[in-house]
Design a protein that fits this description.
This protein is an all-alpha fold. The chain contains 13 helices and no strands. Helix 1 runs antiparallel to helix 13 and helix 2 packs across helix 13.
Length: about 325
């Protein structure tokens, strides 16, 4: 979905219903996966999880969400999007409700909130969306590389992911290259001049983050957020009897999330789960335990994010209402 072409008359109710259906599909997928393995063994493994552990794991996920909000606000400020930090955080968290949808609608909804209440056009905020994804992917790749030594067979995939990220980042953060590409496409198509003008403006704004001094803080925030969820995954695996090092879990988690981030997997569904369970089995974790651990980790990260997003969504919808225009009657 192209945020620059997104209509301001977006129906949150309709999108919320679609997101709920996709979220239900995610829950059905996890339940069906447990059914195809030794269900009794999986349930025995799940009984090892205590309430205090679950609270800690969910708390670590909340740490990730908090750091993501801070990163979003940092990126916003440096793209001249002046919105109070609490308001901006509400918009960001509300977007989690739409994570399990095709086209990453959740991210577009965040931009819609900014346009609806504060008047920032999509040409202004499209770079915000792209930078948020970029500063998500690089920390994941770094954490995956830290634990990649035992996974020689995954080397080609990591090299490919690295090349894609390096190429995409170089183009995105080098405004001259990006502007030339946009102009070249426009010269071929000769259509939608306003859209391409907006894209050129977005390219200029993105160029600000070619500075390492500006790009380092959001990368560190992304690194801290993902590390919190990796520690949570490590605690879950340890409780289920899968004794793996933190660096190994970092690779399993990071590689799986990168695979799941491919656009063919809405919300990472399918790709992330298959990669995570498959890598755990390859490491010697029994299949029922690997599947149970994968289900818990995804529910405590992705599933929990969706729930929190739906809880915050009504507040985001309320505070993003357009400001009332006061009309003063003048007597003739």
């Amino acid at each position: 979905m192209n945020p620059l072409a997104y209509n301001q008359d977006l129906s949150l109710g309709r999108l919320a219903r679609q997101a709920m259906l996709w979220s239900l599909g995610f829950a059905v997928l996890l339940a069906a996966t447990l059914q195809v393995v030794d269900l009794d063994a999986a349930l025995v493994a799940l009984h090892q999880l205590t309430l205090p552990l679950i609270v800690v794991v969910l708390g670590l996920s909340l740490v990730n969400y908090l750091l993501r909000c801070l990163r979003w606000h940092y990126l916003s400020r440096h793209l001249d999007v002046e919105v109070p930090v609490l308001t901006n955080s509400v918009y960001y968290v509300a977007g989690f409700a739409f994570t399990i949808t095709p086209g990453k609608i959740g991210e577009v909804v965040r931009l819609w909130f900014l346009k609806r209440r504060h008047g920032y056009g999509y040409a202004h905020t499209a770079g915000l969306l792209l930078l948020d994804r970029l500063t998500d992917a690089w920390p994941l790749l770094l954490l995956a590389l830290l634990g990649a030594a035992p996974f020689a067979g995954q080397g080609p995939a990591l090299v490919l992911i690295t090349l894609v990220l390096v190429t995409g980042s170089a183009i995105m953060l080098h405004p001259g290259w990006l502007r030339r590409m946009i102009k070249l496409v426009y010269q071929r198509l000769k259509r939608a001049p306003r859209l391409f003008a907006q894209m050129l403006r977005a390219a200029r704004l993105l160029g600000r983050f070619a500075s390492p001094a500006l790009l380092t803080p959001p990368l560190l925030l992304g690194l801290g957020g993902w590390l919190a969820e990796i520690v949570g995954a490590w605690l879950v695996l340890d409780a289920l009897g899968a004794s793996l090092s933190l660096t190994t879990v970092a690779f399993v988690f990071g590689f799986s999330m990168l695979v799941g981030s491919l656009p063919i997997f809405p919300g990472g569904i399918g790709g992330a789960e298959a990669s995570m369970a498959g890598l755990l089995v390859w490491l010697g974790v029994p299949l029922p335990v690997a599947v149970a651990a994968t289900a818990v980790i995804r529910l405590a990260t992705l599933g929990f994010a969706v729930v929190v997003g739906f809880l915050v969504l009504p507040l985001a919808a309320a505070i993003s209402r357009p400001r009332a225009v006061l009309v003063t009657a003048v007597n003739p």
